[in-house]
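Below is a complete specimen:
___
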Amino acid sequence: MFTGIVADIGRIESMVSQGDGARMRVVPQALAVDDVAIGDSIAVNGCCLTVVDNDPSSRALAFDVSGETLRCTTGFAPASAVNLEKALRLVDRLGGHLVTGHVDGVGVVCAFEPVQGGTSESSWRVVIEVPPELSRFLAAKGSIAVDGVSLTINKVNANTCEVNLIPHTLQVTTLRWLAPGARVNIEVDLMARYAARLAGW
């Protein structure tokens, strides 16, 4: 379980084919990895992955990424920057919202621009089109995880949602490099998913 509060930006050092999946090595910039054990969970661009190796000499973390994970996510290419978050501990503050790291689908950025009347130093408006089957889980003032970043939905229109990125979020996550047409990992709010199930949707 995660919070959607990104702790660091890492870079994918390599992706080596392995069966129907791949062995991925990620090098964090500043994330402390001395306490990361084999078997621990790390959210990589919002996808919960299991650490299979921790190389203290290079600080690289290795993950085995299944073919199924590669089919339903985006952003796992060599040299790509990725958002990183360690798993939530029971003593941690829940600063974002409950995020499982189970990506529901891939969205497409429709718009990425400074808020009206703003400058490049201000907040940015992002409009994302989500797969139609996920749109029922979107609600204004609800939560959504985009590439592992916890965000509040400002508006919903059919299969699109609009979020706001404050300067801090742009500074500490990979979302600063978004552009129209970019593909992003989407996880809908856990509570919305269970509410829909209970309501028989």
Residues 139 and 156 are 6 Å apart (CA to CA). The two ends are 25 Å apart (CA to CA).
